[in-house]
Amino acid sequence: MQTADRNTKYTSKTIQSEILEAAASCISDVIKEEVSRACKFALMADEAKDISNIKQLSVCVCYVDIDSGKVKESFLCFVAMQKYGAVSIAQTILDEINKAGLSIKNCIAQCYDGASIMSGTMNGVQTVIREASQNPCPYIHCMAHRLNLVVVDIARGIPQINKMFRLMEKVHSFFSISAKHYDVFMRIQELHGLRKQETPALNDTRWICRYASLDVFVNQYDCILETLERLGKCDEMLADSSTGQDAEIVSFNTITLMTIMLSILQETQPLSESLQKEDITLDKALSNMESVLVNLVELRS
To answer: Entry's InterPro entries (predicted)?
Structure first.
């Protein structure tokens, strides 16, 4: 840059895209070299919608780094999906593995979520990949995802807990739909000398993540009540809505359920995070799960 012409800045969108593509190519070459040296790898893939509501398939590989002797996870690519059948998804994965210069025959395990299209033993992605790899290539369900499913299944089976979370969502919506509501809530937190926090929206699929939402709600409990009371007094049109939510929040059942759920999620949240770490091992995972089970049993007593 110091010796280039003054009009050579490399800031145009075309040049920037070329630089990114070159960097991606260099990184891919490094990953290919590392996986080739490791000989074997595990395949990981997952889908998620982006901000444009387009399904993106992420493909990663997990292998042992020969130099350090440690397990390493490397991201290969995102692919915008046009078709969502098991064969289409599997073929996309196979195409990306080939583009990376890897052989699917060296794949010794595959890890996806529990959706039937991915995990199906007859026509699922795992079956198509296994046939292509020509080796057992076992499917392993993400342990963190399984933990989330357990929490979801238990919580959804208890109407009172569902009602409590719906109340939290109503309060979040009440504070979010109006700048006035939001400003009053922020000012009250400031008056109490607390760090300003919003009431987070609840995640419908990842209940483990609801710990953060519930933690904020409990920590800001007094401020939430004061905000609802103040808004109800200042605006007659809001009185019924804020008073109704106020009455629900201060009920014995709501307070009890919030306390219980916070205690439970305080145990499961760290476990979920540990199961997603790159350096997690089977013995560590089993030990962490056993500790959580012991703590949950103690909570019951």
So the answer is: DUF4371, RNaseH-like_sf
Helices (H) and strands (E) in the chain, counts: 12, 5
Enumerate the CATH 3.30.420.40 domain ranges in the chain, comma separated.
Answer: 39-141
Q: Which token pair is 164?
A: 């409590």
> Is 38:65 a contact under the CB 8 Å cutoff?
yes
240-290 pLDDT, tens digit per residue, is 555 556 678 888 988 999 999 999 999 998 998 898 887 788 899 999 999
Query: Which CATH superfamily does the domain covering 39-141 fall into?
Result: ATPase, nucleotide binding domain (3.30.420.40)
Strands 55-64 and 139-141: unpaired
pTM equals 0.68
Residues 6+ apart with CB under 8 A from 141: 111, 112, 113, 114, 119
Mark 46-60 as b/e (b = at least 16 C-beta within 10 Å): bbeeeeeeeeebebb
